[in-house]
Amino acid sequence: QVTLKESGPVLVKPTETLTLTCTVSGFSLSNARVGVSWIRQPPGKALEWLAHIFSNDEKSYSTSLKSRLTISQDTSKSQVVLTMTNMDPVDTATYYCARIRLGVVGGAYYYYMDVWGKGTTVTVSS
Amino acid sequence: SSELTQDPAVSVALGQTVRITCQGDSLRNYYASWYQQKPGQAPVLVIYGQKNRPSGIPDRFSGSSSGNTASLTITGALAEDEADYYCNSRDSSGNHGEVIFGGGTKLTVL
pLDDT by residue (tens digit) across A54-69? Predict the structure, then answer.
C-alpha cells in the first residue's frame, strides 16, 4: 500500500524558515518516472503546486516561490524535504505531499498525482 | 506561468449528468488530470492522462478534451459526488516542469 505522510511544525513565526518532511512507504523514491510533489491549500482557497522532485533528482519549482523553496530527497530514508524561507502569514495553509507520476502518450509527457498524504496544517503567526 | 480556468460552482440534480470544464493554453500540449476533494480531506485523483480512471474510481467519472478545454463528466451523479473538483496539467509556457492547478469547481448535487 502506497502512503505518504507529512510532518513538520504546526506554528512558525514570520520570517522563519519552514521545514516539512514527507515520508513515503509502499514505493521507492528510486523508481523511474516517479517523484514527490508538494502542494499547499490556504484555508478556503484552491490548491497551489509548490515543487517536485523525481527519482533522477530532477527538480522543479513554482516560479512565484522559487526563490524561497528548496526540495531534496533522501532515498535511504524514503523522505522528501521541502524548505520555505521567510515565512509570512499568507503562507498559512495545509501542505500536502503527493506521489507524482510521469505518463507518456504519443511522445508527450504529462504529470499526475496519484496518491496524496493527509496534509499538515501550518500557521504563520507571531 | 499559464493558467487553468474553471467555473467556480456547478450544480446537478441527483442522477443527472454534469460536465465540469477546465480551460487553458497548456491543455493544447499536455493532458489534464482531475482531483476530487471533499471537506476536510485530501484530494483524490479521479482522472489522469485526460481519460484514464485509477482503480477504485467509479465508471460514472469520465474525462475528455478538445483544443484548450478538458472536461470531467459525471454520468448519474450521486450525493457522494458533492465535492470540489480541481484540474491540473503541466505548464506549457516558460518552465515546462511546472504544474498548474485550476481554481476549482464546487459541485452541488441537488
Answer: 998 999 999 999 999 9
